[in-house]
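Just scan my protein:

——
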Amino acid sequence: MKTFKLGGVHPPENKLSAEAVIETLPIPEQVVVPVGQHLGAPATPVVKRGDEVKVGQLIAKSSGFISANIHSPVSGKVFKIDNVYDASGFRRPSIIINVEGDEWLETINRSDDIDADIKLNSKEITDKLNEMGIVGLGGATFPSFVKLMVPEGKKVDYLIINGVECEPYLTSDHRLMMEKGEEMLIGTTILMKGLNTNKAMIGIENNKPDAIEHLKKLATKYKGISIHPLKVKYPQGGEKQLIKALTGREVPSGKLPLEVGCVVNNVGTAYAVYEAVQKNKPLFERVVTVTGKSVIQPSNFLVRVGTPIKSLIEAAQGLPDNTGKIISGGPMMGKAVLNTDIPVVKGTSGILLMADGDAKRGEVNTCIRCGKCVEACPMGLEPFLLSKSSKLAKFDVVEKELVMDCIECGSCSFTCPSNIPLLDYIRLGKNKVGQIIRNRNQK
């Protein structure tokens, strides 16, 4: 069975919502739409207080090469533009809209008919993804059109579609593959055309045998697309790990997948690409998992961007009494949120309600030099050294030891018998080194 070789761990899977079919969440009375829901420069609002908007209307325009358009997820009136807390605890510029009905732009094709006739050429596909605000839905939220702009002299051998969903608890990708598999494969074909490649590999961990079999049957109709079962191992969803598992190719330190002839997209992104190109639908809603061991009804919801996460929690039968932490994302790479008013954004894959016992960190003890963090690191780094050096503000050492290669998967912290918050310190060091590098490059 294929997998990556270096490092990795096996946390409990806890896929409690794997059988929960996707339900459409009711639209809230008000949405909060941040203008920075993507990697890169925040978008610039093109609406003002009092403006009437429709579903799918452009409300904030991309403001740089690495940026993405933002579209209204609802119809109604702009209440105000203000700074609102995001999942990371920072106040970010957001467009707040009071909902009035559900009137969509007439240009969006709302029919359920599956359209496999791809009329656009490669350049038109790239432009359409830019126009529709499509970003990577696997977590990084990188603007998708940029990945299709292959530099001269580079060639894409493989488009890789990430259906791994290795983060414990999360099942939104699993349900998309089961319920929207045909559309996702058409989206994959669109991406292949955009990249001018004739090979696509879809990697799925073998804890999802139903999705593997389902897509294998569907893929027989789509030229160049192959389905690859993978051994269950975290963090196989990391693009460098997935490339290694599927192709055997290794992305060099500091380089992008394109360096080894690969481009990676998530299954959710492939579905969003289908809707953008074939249905002229911007990215203003996504599937979000709501789960936890004490959650009465673990669920997968189709949610409009800007919906407060408290609406999702209520739809899953409420906040359990023993909740110790609310996490946006999964337990390995997700972030604990300040409150339940935080809005769903394009990159929100799940809401995990972690029980009090599981949420508490163990008592930190002295490092016993066991080396487990080094064995677990999928990037071949030395987490104990990076953590210690970051704590001591030795950022020259941190940079030299390749902290920027860290994918922040949390395998080191997960495996540490001394409960040392290795990743916390490494993130601190990575952030500081990133600032140092940017300042250096500006001189």
